[in-house]
Amino acid sequence: MTNLIWSKVCFTFPFLDGKGFGTETMEEEGGYEGFDLIKQENLCTFIEELAINLIENEMREKIAPEFWKNFNNRDNEVDGFNKFKTAVRDLYNSVTLFLPVFRKLERLRDYCGVRKVTYGEETLYGTFKVIVGATLHSQLSLGHKVVTEDFYRIAFKVFCNPEKSGGDQDEDEVQCGGCSQELEQCHCDEIMATFNETNRKLIELDILEKLAGDVITALIHVRIENRVQEMCNASFSCSYISSLENYSISFSNETLLLSQWLDTVVLGWLSKVYMYSPAQDITHQAINKFKQKLLHHLYETYTCTRIDQMFNIIIEYPDSQPAVEDLRVCVQKTDLRGYLTRKLEQTLVTKLLHQGVNTPDVLTAYVAAVKTLRQLDPTGVLLDTVTQPVRKYLRNRHDTVRCVVTALTDEGPSELADELVRCQVQNVDENSPLEDDIDNWESWEPDPMDADPSKTAKSRQSSDIISMLANVYGSKETFVTEYRTLLADRLLSSISYNTEKELRYLELLKLRFGEGHLHYCEVMLKDIYDSKRINGHLTSDLNFDLIRKQEFPTTALILSAQFWPAFKEETLELPQIVKDHFQIYTEAFEMLKGNRTLNWKPHLGFVTIDIELKDRKISLSVSPIHATIIWHFQERLEWTIEDLSHQMQVPATVLRRKIAFWQSQGLLREVSTDMFVLVEDTPGGRCKDSMTVDMSCEDEESDSPMASAHDQREEELQVFWSYIVGMLTNLDSMPLDRIHQMLKMFASQGPMSVECNVQELRHFLDRKVREHKLLFSGGLYRLPKT
């Protein structure tokens, strides 16, 4: 290329001669002499590539660094707003200097008939936008999101200001809710004008989405999340699903529908952002599509919020039923069922399953969880999955069954007691195949994917709360055994013979668990009734003459030993006069019943005593051991623990605990270690008039007279020991499985049979090995040689 040709080309495009951009002054009809030369020399593509290269260098070396320099050293939110505004303004002023060049190059293309795709764009104006966006992105500043967020956050706040959105602003307000300035110095109009102008420039340069798209979306999401939190935080008694579908929520000082909030506030602000887009139809479609995404995000946010609050929702059930119903609908609309299962299971384990929560509270939460999750998921799959750790934990707590039975038969308000009365027995044979109702085949739905395939839908839905609690142990026998023990406690601790309430609960439990399991309990209640009848008969019938023979009235609870739980084995030597009264009563009973006699339990029952002191008279109802203690102090004024323990045949530790009651009543005083004396005078001197005080003994320990479930089980397992000794004597040695099979064949027969699984038998035999009553070697058990 000659200098003359180059000079003419530079005359047409002055920036090629180093005169800088912005010097293009060619009119629409002039300056085509240079175009002819360029076309003649075939220089169109060369000049276009050279111009693009020069523009890229200018963008890369000067404009982009100056643009990103504004995003550094941001002081506060307002400073970030101003920095973003300045950066976009300077960028726009700089890059618009290139527009005349690209327009002239576009005309050159048309004149020369050149069609070329550059950077994926057919037009040079499109190429120009690609260059601007790519160059800025290549030098992206680390702090650009912070400044961008400042700009759009302030603009969004101003847009949502009640005064700007047509709402009523409080007359007492002295500060603008949008710009946070005093009302006389409000800058909201200036901010919105700057906001609109800045977005217009970004849209013209086609970098709005690249520069601020993620920030705008994140800002809207945060706004929605905050709105949901404000709307339903710790409020479970109202349904908000209508707020999500019909969209009614509180906004500012008036009621706005959430749909309106999305349209007028969120999408209204979004329309402001894109209001200068050249393709308004496409933009409108994009905003409507974005609205569906926002609505889905709204559901997800609300669902996650309710899932995080699920433990409190369970505890407050049934007051929280509206929140549960909302969550049921939302879980169907979102893919958050798995998150709900994991989160709730983890929350229950963290907040319930530790020693800091007592068993009644765990049971209360479990019952509430059952009711809540049944409403949330009628299929029962969620309930079965989430509460599995709770059931396992309750199975390992020793007092679970007792707490359940106590709650069932408690006089006070109890959900389980109400459930026992309210619910009817569901006569479902779980061992028979369950057929779905043919009439409802159109509404049939498959089980969720996380359902246990070994369980049918009907079996998961048929179990009531009480049956679920009873089946925590895998069978009803343990539950019924504990109820039998608790019933025995209540009957023995009652001074009266009134069994009406216990009979009512028994009839309800018989409907629930069947008469066979509770036959022993029926006999126990019948014993109480018969005891009342026998006592009345022996006292009133002159043939027995108990009133004349006894110095004080004696009555008895006559129990059928084989039907009652085992009693604690405690010793107590009663005074001779009491034993004589027992003998008189026994002889009268033998006369009445013929071939039956009585075996007395001296440590059980109640004794009504009158204690006459120097200045007062006290009437008390106490246990036999308490009565025996104070009885001996009328014979001797001083007793040591050792002497009294020997006299009463009671361990010294137990005796000291029982004496503490009389110390609390001021009748006994410890004068030296283990030496107690009777105190007849009240502190401060004798009273003027003798006084009578009616009191009842409330033993602080409130020990049950019945043997614990563990002790009862140990006694039951001792039935096997004689069989095991006989088998090993005859067969020398046997493995565990063989012993278990033989016991099932011979020892587990009859009405008083005892069941024992392999694991329980193993523990029993291992304990005998530790007691040196058995030897174990090579997997075989044998008796030690004597």
Automatic annotation (TrEMBL):
Gene3D superfamilies: Cullin Repeats, Cullin, Chain C, Domain 2, Winged helix-like DNA-binding domain superfamily/Winged helix DNA-binding domain. Keywords: Cell cycle, Cell division, Mitosis, Ubl conjugation pathway. It comes from Timema tahoe. One of its GO terms (molecular function) is ubiquitin protein ligase binding. GO terms for cellular component: anaphase-promoting complex. It comes from the Eukaryota. The lineage of its organism: Eukaryota, Metazoa, Ecdysozoa, Arthropoda, Hexapoda. SUPFAM superfamilies: Cullin homology domain, Winged helix' DNA-binding domain. GO terms for biological process: cell division; metaphase/anaphase transition of mitotic cell cycle; protein K11-linked ubiquitination; ubiquitin-dependent protein catabolic process. Residues 408-663 form the Cullin family profile domain. Residues 432-450 have a biased composition (Acidic residues). InterPro entries: ANAPC2 (IPR044554), ANAPC2_C (IPR014786), Cullin-like_AB (IPR059120), Cullin_homology (IPR016158), Cullin_homology_sf (IPR036317), TPR_ANAPC2 (IPR057975), WH-like_DNA-bd_sf (IPR036388), WH_DNA-bd_sf (IPR036390). SMART domains: APC2, CULLIN. This is Anaphase-promoting complex subunit 2. It holds the Pfam family ANAPC2. Belongs to the cullin family. Residues 431-459 are annotated as: Disordered.
